[in-house]
Write a structure and sequence with these properties.
With 151 residues, the chain is an alpha+beta fold. The chain has a domain of 100 residues: Winged helix-like DNA-binding domain superfamily/Winged helix DNA-binding domain (Arc Repressor Mutant, subunit A, Orthogonal Bundle), CATH 1.10.10.10. It has 5 helices and 8 strands. Strand 6 and strand 7 form a beta hairpin. Helix 2 crosses helix 4. The longest helix is centred in the middle third of the chain and has 13 residues. The chain is elongated. The two termini are 24 Å apart.
Length: 151
């Protein structure tokens, strides 16, 4: 099977959008650098809701794609969703750990890896037997635009 030095999956649908200041914002241009800044009046005493629960995005377009995976691959996919680190396009899939946590055999683990690669959910990473590239168009934990900026 092929292995990759860089992630072969590129985020799709990421677009640049122009910045329009809010009514209470003002644009300031630094005369020395020409850089533009948005100045916003800060309202003191304002509170915002925050959800501290961990999450991983699984994109709607991927669900039908995932229906064709064998059961052992779905279990490993669920493990990936649970263990995926924030703003990373790689995941560690340790056979022994997955055998215990997913209650599958070693043979099922290797079948699952093969099927996830075939379905383009993951790709092998050069130099590693446990670290795989994830397809950020299927699942991602964080902001995919950070991948585009770092690519």
């Amino acid at each position: 099977m092929e292995s990759y030095l860089n992630n072969p999956f590129k985020p799709e649908g990421i677009v640049d959008r122009s910045f329009e200041p809010k009514e209470e914002s003002k644009i300031w241009v630094d005369p020395e650098t020409g850089e533009s800044y948005s100045l916003t009046k800060i309202v003191t005493g304002k509170t915002e809701m925050h959800d501290p629960m961990m999450y991983t995005k699984v994109y709607i377009s991927a669900f039908l794609h995932l229906n064709d995976l064998p059961y052992c691959a779905v279990k490993v996919f669920n493990y990936m969703v649970h263990t995926l680190k924030s703003n990373r396009d790689t995941v560690y899939l340790n056979c022994a750990d997955i055998e215990v946590n997913c209650k599958i055999s070693q043979a099922s683990y290797y079948t699952a890896i093969k099927e996830l690669i075939k379905a383009k959910v993951i790709a092998r990473k050069i130099g590693s037997t446990m670290e795989y590239w994830i397809n950020p168009n299927i699942l991602f934990n964080g902001n995919r635009t950070k991948l585009v900026k770092h690519s």
